Amino acid sequence: MTIGIDKLHFFTPNLYVDLVPLAEARGTDPDKYTIGIGQNKMAINPLSQDTVSIAANAALPIVSKEEAELIDMVILGTESSFDYSKSGATYIHQLLGIQPFAKAIEIKQACYGATAGLLMARDYIKSHPDRKVLVIGSDIARYGLNTAGEVTQGAGAVAMLVSSNPSILILEDDSVAMTENVFDFWRPAYSDTAIVDGKFSNDVYMSFFKNIWEEYSKRNNLTFEDFEAICFHLPYSKMGKKALLPLLESETDETSERLLANYAHSTLYTKEIGNIYTGSLYLGLCSLLDHQSNLKAGQRIGLFSYGSGAVGEFFSGRLAPNFKDALLSSEHQQLLAERTELSISDYEELFSGSLPKDGSTFILPTSTDPAPIILEKLTGHQRHYLRK
Question: In its UniProt record, which GO terms are filed under biological process (predicted)?
Fold first, then answer.
């Protein structure tokens, strides 16, 4: 029996900021954004989209009525939760009409949460091969206006349906994880924006990849030659390349060129959306599968997950037979093509807006957001969603 990702879909809100005019407004050379960190646009969420609605929109196209009856777990990985107690997965469970005798939980460990959920789902399916698990990484990255991290903001979610005999990626049981208590990036409960030590965070990320890769290679007797591609958690599109390049210095030209070419394919969606935290690694996987037409069944794809604070993990999967038939590439590209660009002034006004925190009733417009699921209103400290 094989286990892995049977269906895969991402969602991002319909608004974005182009980073060239943002750079000009900030008095910065646009090349610093578009070349230096490798980003073109960043997704912006209207108030009608939050972590839950973004997640539900990502999952909606891959959860049919029949599959909703087979899902035993809904796992939401996020660091953008708006409730210290109630799981965002409980809302998603209802919005997608999933059968009532299912678990719904939320996992937090910075950008690593969705990976924890994915591997938990794999282990569950081992014992329940006729059932399915829905795993979603959903986040809204916020650093504040005119801050060092502003250009690496973003919003989006990636949903994965995990099952036996999967259609897209067969997960191997080969993962190696690592934990270290560090303060490279964190967000205290009293803060709406994250605190980040940018250079230190980059250094920790690169160190984690090197140490985990070396241990993974030793335990599994695998080298870079065994991989067709490696996908990375991408807070911005250049980050994974910084970690990979030093380790490729001793590799053959053929191996290095293959991995770097496929790395470029894996960054294309990140360039257009920005950092989506827990979903970032899997957005890279979507991008690789949607843009690299030369991939073949049976090829091994490496996945490096990293969550600040810090937890990292490297694991792999093999492309399933006929995996291309299960991809939603045209839907992904249409979603990006239909977005609306915000002026810098409109972006700043929207970013500065907020939902009430005093329990008062607040009604959001339903006609300005084309997404099928939106946050409709707040009443008595409760959020209510509309599935159109």
Answer: acetyl-CoA metabolic process
Considering 67, 93, 111, 376, which one is annotated as catalytic?
A: 111
Say if residue 143 carries a ligand binding annotation: yes
233 included as an active-site residue: yes
Q: Tens digits of per-residue pLDDT, 109-127?
A: 999 999 999 999 999 999 9
User: Annotation-wise, does 103 bind a ligand?
Assistant: no
- Give yes or no: 79 in active site: yes
Same domain, 337 and 349: yes
Same domain? For 132 and 252 the reply is no
The active-site residue out of 9, 93, 233, 265 is 233
The pLDDT of residue 198 is above 90: no
Domain final residue pick, 291, 323, 355: 323
**By residue range, what is the domain housing residue 356?**
3-168+327-387
pTM for the whole structure: 0.97
For residue 243, what are the contacts with CB-CB under 8 A and spacing of at least 6? Answer: 205, 206, 209, 210, 232, 304
Interval 150-197: pLDDT, tens = 999 999 999 999 999 999 999 999 999 999 999 998 889 898 888 888
CATH of the domain at 38: 3.40.47.10
Q: Of the candidates 305, 323, 341, which is a domain's last residue? A: 323
Residue 29 is assigned to a ligand binding site: yes
Task: Give the pLDDT score at 171.
Answer: 98
- Is 377 assigned to a binding site? no
CA atoms of 388 and 386, how far apart (whole Å): 6
Domain match, 180 and 213 both: yes
For the cut 90, the answer to whether the pLDDT of residue 309 exceeds it is yes
Q: Does 235 share its domain with 305?
A: yes
